[in-house]
UniProtKB/TrEMBL annotation:
GO MF, any single term: proline dehydrogenase activity
FAD dependent oxidoreductase domain sequence ranges: 8-383
A Pfam family hit: DAO
UniProt keyword annotation of Flavoprotein present: yes
Organism for this UniProt entry: Hebeloma cylindrosporum
Assigned protein family: Belongs to the MSOX/MTOX family.
Upper lineage: Eukaryota, Fungi, Dikarya, Basidiomycota, Agaricomycotina
Gene3D superfamilies noted in UniProt: D-Amino Acid Oxidase, subunit A, domain 2 (3.30.9.10), FAD/NAD(P)-binding domain (3.50.50.60)
Name of the protein this chain belongs to: FAD dependent oxidoreductase domain-containing protein
Swiss-Prot/TrEMBL cofactor(s): FAD
Amino acid sequence: MILPKNEKIIIVGAGCFGVSTAYHLLQRGYTDITIIDRSPTLPAPDAASNDLNRIVRSSYSDRFYTELAREAISSWKDHAKWGDTYRESGVLVLGSSESGETYADESYKNDVALGALVEPLNDSDAIRAVFPAGTPTAPFAGCAGYLNRSGGWADAGQGMTLLLNEVKALNGKVLPGMNVIKILRKDGQTIGVQCSDGTVLDAALVVLAAGSWTPSAFPELDLGRICLATGQCVAMVQLSRKEAEIYKDCPVVLDFSSGFYIFPPNEADIVKMAIHSAGYTYFDEANGHRMISTPRTLTSDPVRGLFIPKSVVRDLRMHLKNVYPDLAEKPFSGTRLCWYNDSPDGDWVIGHYPKDESLIIATAGSGHAYKFLPVIGRLVADLVEEKLESELITKFAVERKPIMPDPSRTGQVKNLDLYQLCTPEDLMIPNVVSGQSR
């Protein structure tokens, strides 16, 4: 049954899925939309959708995501709406092979087929030539890939703030500092939510978009088969203004063979890098999450919540050396465990909870949702209006049985060992110089 547009809809979570969904529903004439979020300030400081930057790429081996990313990029270019949130620096995609069967190769085919401005780079000389003259880069020996000029990066926090403001301008209600502890149900159907302060909010429809907190915050939904909270390791290097001038016109570098990626410096002259990997789980037994991976952030641990494993600090510096060797000689100015909600196959979860038409699960960004901020809520709105294509209903179903693992990720999931986290000293002294430890 299609929901009347004056019915109450509550969206739990003010991240990428939640805010975009609210925006698209309001655009379609729904009049009673409320976003609630646990964080007293929005965008939430520890949310994956609130960060220095996020890659905006159409380079996917799955043509559906390539098409949707191309649509999102068209929206990002609307300066009147997004300002300078999106920076079209280009994305250097590495990881091609002679066999033409890697993730990067399949991505190249989709980019070409859908009209992206791409240039094949078949050797190290061609790769180095895409960087501005005088940029000190590694030799890229044995590497191949392509440059997608129809891509770049977005200021993640700025994009979230702008869309939150749009939601408010459309008379959507945004309630920060409201921690939902229970989905209220009657006769198997959702009828609202209860917050930790005792507040009860009734609703004809609840959209659960709580990101990496979804499995642990709502264990009764038993989403562990399709959702897993994983910490992804990020590091930053603070440049001087003079140093930033050298790298400011570089493309985003994304190596699918290793998962390593790095941005050009932002306005604060910070270079951010990370590894797109299977990540780390954390089981917070003290808070009753012995069986469910739970985000561990600066909110839950203000002292060490941003630290990453020492081994990853070394890995990041090694990969950095293979792109920008001069920067590998500099200390890291900070680190972060950025928490994703991953699905086993890398596809999002956008679907009605089994046998409950009044509860929609919209999550499992799997580390690649932010670039779709302008359009991802359209998919949820289509589901609300029973317009979502049948193949997408199957693709994103809560109860689907994933067959293939996420092809874009590297490594195996590891459990976070708190005794092996880095210290400030690990960041200040480069661990890898000329292939040797100091």
